[in-house]
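Thread: quick sanity check before group meeting

JM: Hey all, I'm pulling together slides for Thursday and realized we never actually wrote out the predicted structure for the chain we discussed last week. Dropping the sequence here so it's in one place. If anyone has concerns about the input, flag it before I start.
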Amino acid sequence: VTPLARDGLDAASAERRLKEFFGVATLDAFGAFTRAEIAAAGAALAYVERTQFGARPPLSAPVRDAGSATMLIDAATRANLELTRTLGGDRQGSLLATIDRTVTPGGARLLAERLAGPLTDPAAIAARHDAVELLVADAGLREDLRTALEKVPDVARALARLSLDRGGPRDLAALGAGLDAARAIAALLVRHGELPVELARAMRALGESDPDLPVRLDATLADELPLNRRDGRFVREGFDPALDELRLLQIDSRKVIAQLQARYATETNCRTLRIKHNSMLGYFVEVPQVAGEEFLRDPWRATFVHRQTMSDAMRFSSVELGELEAKIASAADRALKLELGIFGALCEAVLAQ
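JM (edit): ok, ran it. Output follows.
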């Protein structure tokens, strides 16, 4: 436990922190709050900022809890009821473990949340019962939904990691799969026709996502993804020509050099032209002495720069060969930089949803 100083936890400081975080001039749009509630919300936000080292997780706006929507259960009663944990602290044997038939991590968390905070509003209870009644009565819809939900990864965790700049390519892929599944689930509900209030609300929320975003994610991300973005090679081949060129240089530089050598040999009509490398000159063009004399004259002296004369050969450099050498030397770093830029753009698109 790390005790915090009281400085900055008063209502005035908390209000400034909340307004700055949510980018608003006043908290009135979020509702009416007492000074104690503002101080509590500000303290919670300060804790988040302190523990996340400056990252800005996607937090919803503060909402005043009137205490009437859910039942308040004290810690001792909660423990004795063994709602989510047994008295020994195990999940197995609790009410949650007994009834949990969810097929997604998010569903399991939602069930635990609902068990821990039972509804007290009769209208809200009735609305939930209506949704449950429909799914109990319609076995076909229920099974179709469960099948679709089995394809949903842990979207909330992936989104949290990305928002805190701790995510990787697999988190983006998980969000893409989640968006695809969301639209498939919304389509199932649409086909059913009239729905209870809770399911209708869920259907609208599922259908609000940008349909182009999962397509963009699929077109950008490779089929096999590394865990860490800095491992690179997570962008699909063919997505970015510049990245493909750098990868070719990085992986198959010999082939690229051979292609340039063949082109130079054809253009100069010197079949014995070779591109070689040593630690002193780097990459260079080597031709026999006779051909080298021709390289010193027009039109070739504009392309080839004399570097060294041997007893039976001459060595030259060229602007194109120099640029190619620089590209080969820095291909890995430049490729990773390009990929990280693409990753950042995808994260911005995802977090904007």
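AS: nice. DSSP finds 15 helices and four strands in the chain. The chain has four domains: 11-51, 77-100+109-118, 135-234, 250-328.
JM: adding both to the slides.
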